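G., the chain you wanted modeled:
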Amino acid sequence: MRVLIAVFLIAGAMASPSPRTQQQAPANTKAQTAEKPNVTVVNNQESPTKEQHSTKAEAHRWPPPWWDPFWPTWAIVVVGTLAATAALKTLHLFKRQTEANEKSAQAALLNATAAVNSERAWITIAITRPDRDSFTFSAVNRGRTPAKITYYGGHFIFPTDAAKIGELIRYGGEILGGEFVDPIILTSAEPFTIDSWMVGSEEFPPDVVQEAEAGKKLIVYYGIVKYLDIVDKEHETRFCYRYGFRINDMILCGPKGSNSHT
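Predicted structure as C-alpha cells:
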C-alpha cells in the first residue's frame, strides 16, 4: 500500500511543471507582447451607396436596357452587313448578265458570219484539158453572190525536188507577173480563165522538159487570185501544182499555205 502511494506521488511530481518554468513562460509572453506594437488600420473608403449598387447591377444586366450604346452599335453592324451582302449579290447579278450578253453577242456574230459565208463568193481553181497536153487554169465562183476579181496571176518554177518549192514560190505581183485589173464581176458558177498552156511549148525550155522527164527537175505552176465579196471584203485563193509526166496530169503540191482560201 505504501508502495502504491509512493508511485502515485512520484508520477504526479513528474507531470506537474516546475515553478521555474511557470515563471519563465509569462516573462516570454510579455517580451513578445512588447515587441509587437499595436497598429490601427483606418479604412477611409465609404461604404457603397444604394445608387452605386444599382449602377453595378445595371452594368451586368443582360440584355442591356434600350438606352445602352450596345444597341445602336449592333444596329450599325447589322445594317452594314446587310448592305454589303446586297451589294455583293448585285455585283454577282451584273457579272452574270455581262457574261450572258457576251455569249449572246458571240452567238449573234457567229450566226452573222455563218450567214455571210453561206452567201458570199468563194473562188476555187479548176483545171481543164482542152487536149492531151494542154492545161487551162480557171477561177470559178462557187458562192451564191458575185465576186469582183481585182488581181490574178500564175508563174512557173523548176525546182530540183519538192523540198525546194517553198523556197521559190512568192505570191507577190512582181514575181508572178500578174495583172491588177478593174474588178471583173464573176457570178455564181461562172469560170474565169487565169492561164492556159501546153507541156513542151515555148514556155518550157527544152533542157527543162528533158530534165523533168528524167526526174531531175519538177515543173511547178502556182498562182493567186484576189477578189472582193458582196460587202467589198477582200479574199484570196492560192494554188500550187506540179506536172506529173508518168500520169500526164497536174498534182497538188507545195508547202502549207500554198493552196488556201480566205
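The beta strands are 123-128, 134-141, 147-157, 179-186, 191-198, 220-228, 234-244, 249-252, 260-261.

Shout if anything looks off.
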